[in-house]
Amino acid sequence: MNEQHYVACDLGGESGRVIAGRLSEGKLTFEEVHRFPNGPVDREGSLHWDATRIFEELKVGLEKVGDRNLSVASISVDSWGVDYALVGQSGEMLAQPFNYRDSRTDSTFAEALERAGRDLIFSETGIQFMQINTLYQLMAEQKDHPDRLDAAKYFLTIADYFNFRLSGVAKIEASLASTTQLFNPQTKQWSSKIAETLELPERIFPPICSSGTKLGILRPELQTADGFSNTQVIATCSHDTGAAVAAVPTDQSKGWAFLSSGTWSLLGVELEQPLMSDSARELNFTNEAGYGGTTRFLKNITGLWILQESRRSWSEAGQSLTYDEISKLAAQAEPFRSLINPNAVRFLKPDSMPQKIAQFCVESEQPIPETPGQFARCILESLALLYKKNLDALEELTGQKIDRLHIVGGGSNSSLLNKFAADASDRTVIAGPVEATAIGNLLIQSIALGDLNSLDELREVVRNSFEIETFQPNQTTDWLTASDRFSKLEMIK
User: Catalytic site residues?
Assistant: First the structure.
């Protein structure tokens, strides 16, 4: 196979990156060409994303790729789910996108459940109920800014909006469409029933395309070097978790689960068909589209966001710590001193995270953490216990025995959390690759262009290209006792 070069634009809640990848002789190598900070921006009391600045940063990244004199076969953007931009009749962005943590859905979430009901919404979409979902955001848009919806030609989820800016083609790729709670995973189309019931303008729902769709050639004004003259823009898995799961280095068809670990923890299994049972609805599991028509049956868990926000609070108070330093302090802290329910609603919003943890401990009659090490240990042990709970639930719901947990993404860098996850769940943990999202993005491009032939071949390339680390479980009675304690904390929100 001839050497091929691809570009992945990976957008995350803390940063964005432009990454140049090279596939040669069955191995992938890549280079982070450009990194820039990202995060919510407070504008007049509402949280937004600065999409204008993000696109300017992507253009800087493309210029840096151009400086390397590479012949770039293709490019694709991936991002978090649920958020969107409204696009006008001439392709203009009508307003900066809202951030999913904005409070505007506090009322529309309850309104949707009252008007449509959980049974209808889940039977149509198979998606777990979270007030951040696009469904409730569009209802808030209808309520607060009806003029924008009237002027809109399309809404485009974040990565697909930037793919549109790169190619001029407005489509939403299935993996990202499936996060909206407006997509029917059985018909693989928008749910007209949901749109009609909640009076949302279905005319702004763009066409849906499958993972690995060629959208078109990179716009001429973005061809900053000769190497971009024939570059294809590809909708890979526009949802970062979809791309990350494609890059899980498994060689098993069953018996494994994935954990995409970062700001969010996405824990689930890969299925051939959606699982939309009453039990799945009651336990609030979700069916998201994966590469090749697969279903990512998973639970969306508040993840390292709690630690990230705690670190930010410590920094603002004059105590700046790296994640490595925090991990060392946590390893030295007393085990199982305090536990929290990471999915408690209070931890969804930013600001004052250590105070929120302290208040949770007061309400649950536990010692209040006093040091960053104690706070971090509390967070990591609680996450590990939450993983165990949901792995057990996955086994029950799917009827599959799960003996391996593949942890990918930035959170797989945390050896302490990986060990906790193995010990708490009594399952083997396989950690890595860290850059699974970018790797999946790059290698799905290679399949779209015919350089690789299948998802199995993609995963073989991942196994041949990147190191992974294995953590064997050591489930002590202390973990079992902690699990019993943890189960009693779930009622505290």
Answer: 240
Residues 298, 225 share a domain: no
Query: 349: helix, coil or strand?
Result: coil
Backbone dihedral angles phi then psi of residue 259, each to the nearest 5 degrees? -135, 110
Helix (H) or strand (E) holding 18: strand 15-24
- What confidence category does residue 1 fall into, taking pLDDT thresholds of 50, 70 and 90? low
| Whether residue 183 is found in the same domain as residue 302 | no
Q: Give dist(CA 223, CA 16) in Å, integer.
A: 21
Do 176 and 258 lie in a common domain? Answer: no
Q: Let me know if 455 is exposed, middle or buried by CB neighbors in 10 A (0-12, 13-18, 19+).
A: buried
> Model pTM greater than 0.90?
yes
Burial class (CB within 10 angstroms; exposed 0-12, middle 13-18, buried 19+) of 284: middle
Instruction: DSSP for 220-247, please give it.
Output: GGG--SGGGTTPEEEES--BHHHHHHHT
Of 19, 465, 70, nearest in space to 236 by CA: 19
Same domain membership, residue 406 and residue 478: yes
Same domain, 309 and 219: no
pLDDT digits (tens, 9 = 90+) for 409-420: 999 999 999 999
Which residue has 């979902």 as its token pair?
A: 133
Look up residue 322 and give its amino acid.
T
In whole angstroms, what is the distance from residue 9 CA to residue 32 CA? 10
- Name the phi and psi angles at 105, rounded to 5: -90, 0
Interatomic CA distance for residues 185 and 295, integer angstroms? 8
Where residue 351 falls (left for φ over 0; alpha for ψ -120 to 50; beta otherwise) is left
Per-residue pLDDT tens for 326-351? 999 999 999 999 999 999 989 988 88
Report whether 107 contacts 57 (CB < 8 A): no
Mean of pLDDT values over 262-284: 95
**48: domain CATH number?**
3.30.420.40
Cα–Cα–Cα angle for 436, 437, 438, nearest 5°? 95
Query: What is the phi/psi pair of residue 120, to 5°?
Result: -65, -50
**Residue 448 counted as domain residue:** no
One-letter amino acid of 54: I
Per-residue confidence at 490, pLDDT binned at 50, 70, 90? confident
Q: Determine the Cα–Cα distance for residues 101 and 348; give it in Å rounded to an integer.
A: 7
Q: Tell me the two tokens of residue 435.
A: 């850059």
The parent domain of residue 129 ranges over 4-240
Q: Of 379, 366, 363, which Cα lies nearest the Cα of 311?
A: 379
Residue that is last in its domain, among 201, 223, 240: 240
Per residue in 379-409, pLDDT (tens digit) is 999 999 999 999 999 999 999 999 999 999 9
Strands (E), 82-137: 84-88
445 part of a folded domain: no
Evaluate whether residue 447 is within a structural domain: no
Residue 480 backbone phi and psi in degrees, to 5? -65, -40
Residue pair 137/105 in contact by the 8 Å Cβ criterion: yes
